[in-house]
Fold each of these.
Amino acid sequence: MDFNSFNIKVVKFGGSSLADAEHFKKVADIIHADPTRIFVVPSAPGKRFSGDTKVTDMLYECYNTVTAGGDVDSVFGRICERYNLIIEGLGLDYDLTEEFNHIKWAIGHSAGRDYAASRGEYLNGLILSKYLGYDFIDPARYIRFFDDGSFDSEVTNALLSEELKKHDNGVIPGFYGSMPNGTIRTFSRGGSDITGSIVARAASADLYENWTDVSGFLMADPRIVDNPQGISYITYRELRELSYMGATVLHEDAIFPVRFAGIPINIRNTNMPEDPGTIILSHTEMYDSKHIITGIAGKKGFCVITIEKPMMNSEKGFGRKVLEAIEQENISFEHLPSGIDTMSVVLNRSEISSCRERIVNRICNAVEPDAITIEEGLALIAVVGRGMVKSKGTAVRVFKAVADAGINIRMIDQGSSELNIIIGVDENDFEKAMRAIYTEFVD
Ligand code: ASP
């Protein structure tokens, strides 16, 4: 498949890609280099250098200041300055004073927290549409949420696809839409990725390009493994597994609209547009990966509750009662590796810190175990790859690599999809285990 032969591409640019005028120029070059890049979704200006503040964060600060009865002049002034610097750097004849005044007034008059935050994308969208000569399409009119705040995908898709048909091109600011009563509602942080995906679906795009400051996904975290290889192709499912474990390039919820429509996502680097990046697809059979594994990701900060009781396997409702006890504390469990007379529940340590005792008591009351223990300091590592499905010996290689590095495996979990193997190791062994597995499969 030749990815340059598409008719409609939706291109989303992250905050670091639109942080200043120089980046706007790079973005315009990328868009103009390919006439099929028709619909553009911008984020708000991000950090220009380490220690800089994102415009979205400054807008939240404005809101907080107003609600605390303070004066927003100084922080709002800095926001206006950021945009004016961009306008000036681009040599545009464009004056946003009226917009600024209105926004400042609205933030001061109960327009809400989400309204305040959304103005970062809104203003960046206005400037970008002016600079590109593209139509400005305000998502408040088309991206809709239900009363309970959840995203209304079907009404949105109907409204937005109708609208997009009327435009040859357009800039649609990311991150927000509106509630049934017309107030502005944002997605969670990083949500412009979701808007890009929604627009790609509504435009029946052939490709959703997500431009950021890295050249796609790497096979492992570069802070742990030296110079890891890039991933050329990955499936949505593999990506879900890796993102769950902390591989963060794309907002998790951005996958659903395009996955539903079968539209591939291409993660690209605005500062290195020649890099092909990573392509995320439903099926990658035609793109055999060089390696059995696609990637490794992991996280520290887990703990395991182990419950022992002879004959628990024949006690009906045992597992349900244990999980109910955890649910009653409003906590979700991560994994459930079980033996014959033992059941272990892996949980996020930060979530249970305030209710450990209560959970233990609830479980004791519910199932009367012989013993119950909580072990801290667990790190989980997920080895993920479509190449692992039905290939023999992958698990052995993972375990041997870890054992050869002198590391004890505290937990093993392999989903029946065979797409991943998750192992639990002591937090102190985490980095060493990641490196050992990477070296076994990649180097
Ligand atoms: N500007 C928003 C944020 O900082 C949304 C985004 O960039 O995707 O979270």
Note: Residues 15, 43-44, 54, 56, 120, 174-175, 189-193 surround aspartic acid (CB under 6 Å).
Amino acid sequence: MTAQNVPPQVAARAAELRRLLREHSYRYYVLNAPTITDAEYDALFRELQQLEAEYPALVTPDSPTQRVGSDLQSDMPKVRHVAPVLSLSNAYSVAELRAWRERIGKLLPEGATLDYVVEPKFDGLTVVLTYEDGVLARAATRGDGEVGDDVTPNVRTVRAIPLRVPVMTGGPDVPRVLVVRGEVLMLKDDFAALNAQRVAEGLTPFVNARNAAAGALKQKDPRVTASRPLTAYCYAILHAEGGDVPATQWETLQYLGAFGFRIAKDVIRHLETLDEVIAYIEEFAPRRDALPYEVDGLVVKVNDLATAHDLGVVGKDPRGAIAYKFPAAEATTKLLDVIPQVGRTGVLTPTAVLEPVFLSGVTVKQASLHNYDLIAQKDIRLGDTVIVKRSGEVIPYVVGPVVAARTGAERPIEPPKQCPACGAAVARDEGEVAYYCTNPACPERIARNIEYFVSRAAMDIEGLGERGVRQLLEAGLIQDEADLFTLKAEDLLPLEGFAEKKVQNLLASIQAAKERPLARLIAALGIRGVGSTVAELLAHHFHSIDALAAATQEELEALEGIGPHTARAVVEWFADPRNRRLIEKFRAAGVRLADEPTAPDTTPPTLAGLTFVLTGTLPHLKRNEAKALIETHGGKVSGSVSRKTSYLVVGENPGSKLAKAQALGVPTLDEAGLLALIEEGPNP
Ligand code: IVH
């Protein structure tokens, strides 16, 4: 095909667009360092799509528009999908939404009316779940829409995805084969907690919840996936055999909900007209930030599934649905300065000082730059025009520089050599990204430590925030955390903003904090690498501050979940005479320094005390998978049947074990029975 009838300037623009899209998609997918916003990328993509629609001769096989998005990872087993796993086209305005309705109207019988379902557009990853006889047999990513990565063992660790449906007795009858589509994601709170823990442990935080979820889903070791807080929402049936499924999208969502899948109950709506859809979009927009998960828009779907199907597909996008995208909370502005902020562990976090810019309802003047490695990786320079992003309540952060906007006057950003607060030397541990102030007596570190000590995550002293702590320090009323416990009303009343009632409440809250569990106190100390998870672990093992203080590096390292850096940080912390004195002050003030040793776990796992024997081939679980599943739920697996065997799990072509079990009266289970036992526990 030649381009004879294409004006040369159009051909040149198309070539330029292709080059830009190639470069930016490489930056996004390969380098993980985009320099333009998603919305800007989409705009370029659409411009090329429009040119190609107008001049079909322009389409080349290597055009970015011809690529079906793929998330395939080369080293994972593959699964061929039963039906294409389609994508969605986008609308960026109400006008584009109306244009969509008009386009599909032309394909429908004269005067046909439509009703719609509106759903959240989850910012996660598609997962395709295959249930055979109600049992989760396979889980795959979208991949290229035809073939996906097999992530079954990982998906089995996601609590919101049932291993067997219906979850509750009395749910709908399940078709023999049911293929469900959903989205795996991380809730905002879980993501924030995970990142806080990573920072406390000196690891690089994830850029956003979607990346964190994607990383977790594609782990080689399902135990790593299990340790990441994933959830999933389901929204479609891709395929069913041997049973009836609903004829409308609205009923599909209710049907999936009745099986026990998580659906976005609070957001989904069944609406009769496009005007109602538009009104709902407008009503919903301000609620978006308050949702527990990230959404980048709403999806509008034709409710009648046969009509939606008959409307067909353009490329990879079905005509029967469209994503309404909210304007991206991204903007470009100038990077004026970078200030290292001293954190409680001494870590120096680069903070961007920006030319004020209006971003989804607020003026942003500062943004996080995460760490100095990332600045170097993304080649962010002082004076750069940068892209700033803000999603939900998250602190705005700098995505990257707009390289094309450089004038040549930009200057590189160097990590600090001295602490900006106390002037002490700055150090960095091998294998860690963070630079930190080496002076444990740094006034800024002390202030931050006390702020952390009183915070909700630590000792939870209500009525004392960042400002209050600074006031107490400045007034000389406290020098360390322990001084809080000897504060008196007459000390506080003269301070600005400390009225009678407030002082009373604060003192009561300080009193209550003396009784916090040991794990909270350990977490509150602000030892590097010791967040709430590690603190729980330490409290659980040592039962008292004194035992922990006496622990050696080897003893600590021997604990699962504690690495050498953290072990060393703990030993060093307790070796510091200032910290020993702090503990003695706590003791003198009556702060609780030990826990009663408690029973190891409060809720026994469902298979505790049960012994299983496996025989024959199970329909879905391999033998080692079944064994691992039983063991993670507290059961034991034995090789031979005896009177002590609680259950024999029987698959196809069972061996002589079956006869033996029958002779001994040992009850038998099939795979589905085993999964039911895991979910519900043995019947009393
Ligand atoms: S429906 C034919 N519904 O958005 C149906 N997709 O941009 C096509 N997504 O790959 C998909 N929330 O991973 C649908 N409520 C929702 C969705 C949703 C998020 C994702 C999905 C898809 C991507 C397309």
Note: The mean pLDDT is 88.
Amino acid sequence: MTTRYRVEYALKTHRRDQLIEWVKGLLAVPFVLHSQPTAVFEPQGTSVDETALVTQRRYAEIMRDVEEIVNDHIAHQQAGTHDRSKLKLLVPSVATFFTPLALHDAFIWQDQRRFISWRRFVPPSFNDVRLVLNTAQVMSLVRNGPLELVTFDGDVTLYDDGQSLTPDNPVIPRILQLMRRGSRIGIVTAAGYAEARRYYERLYGLLDALHASNMPPSWKQNLIVLGGESNYCFKFAGDSPDLLKLVPRNDWLLPEMTLWQESDITELLDIAESSLRDTVKNMRMDALIVRKERAVGIIPQAGHKFCRETLEETVLITQKILEISPVGRRLPFCAFNGGNDVFVDIGDKSWGVLACQRFFGGIEGGKTLHVGDQFLSAGANDFKARLACTTAWIANPAETVQLLDEMGELDEMQQRKTR
Ligand code: IMP
Ligand code: MG
């Protein structure tokens, strides 16, 4: 591994999403050709709205072309030749698409809210494209509804990092609304505890609201929690003091997961722990090691904040050591940067989402949406959910609320159309 390679890898690959970067690059061309920055000091020229509409048409045409390239990739997937699709050549990191993406319509939708085409100095950004992709995904899911399962990450997606889902959280009525429309809900979080009480403490706002709601009792059963990525399953239980009941592993594990050997789990966690200990020592980190039944991690000593670079270094070293170990090839694991901690969990969110799909009777990836904040390719734990279902990449809990409102609005439009 040359130094150059390490610099490229460490600075770029895992901190970029190649599909988003590619779309951003395509949109940069009409921005350069049509955005007319000089109009700011030449007020007699064409109006802002006229210029914007020309630019919007160009952007939207590009999004239509990308939409078709995605459709071509899906056709290749169905024929078993996805490695030969045009999109795969252009963006080698793309994997499976579970549904088409309504990119053209989504661009217009977001443009009416973010005024991307009206900008003359700031080109379409990473966040613009990320939000257009989210809208395109939910448009497609709603149009080909019903959306049968929505899974949510916890920290940063439902509540701020390290906080709890308190009763005033605006996401609560939106999740209940989704349940009333018939969607099942899974909270797929890395937070790993074997006791219901710990999850009640993190999620009580939502659990209490569901308990108090006038929803039929059988519908309330449509919420489960999958903790430790894919290690603990709890179902809603109105008669339990914590409103959650542990589901025995044998009742929900996928057949492949029953093959995970206890001896392998211990071996993998031992290797991870020793790597974490080395990094803590070498980087002089004020950290405590936390070893659990299905995870090992480092957390800061009281009041301490780790810098991003240290956290990423710790994840990348541990991940690499595990990847090259024989047990790391036998057993799925997830090493990630939790904002101010680093954890290595047994399994990952693809297994967590698959377990939710199975729990609810075998829901397909194209009828499932996972909403999360960690979608970078290394050191992020929601990324793996892409193997199991469609996804939306949000940046904070307010964006989750916005996304759910968008879904509600699109759903109403769809209902009106079919009436
Ligand atoms: P998520 O965003 O809901 O996936 O939660 C991630 C956070 O859960 C981590 O950053 C940790 O602070 C916390 N956490 C608590 N226990 C565990 C564990 O066993 N594994 C991983 N993360 C944990
Ligand atoms: Mg998160």
Note: The longest strand covers residues 295-300.
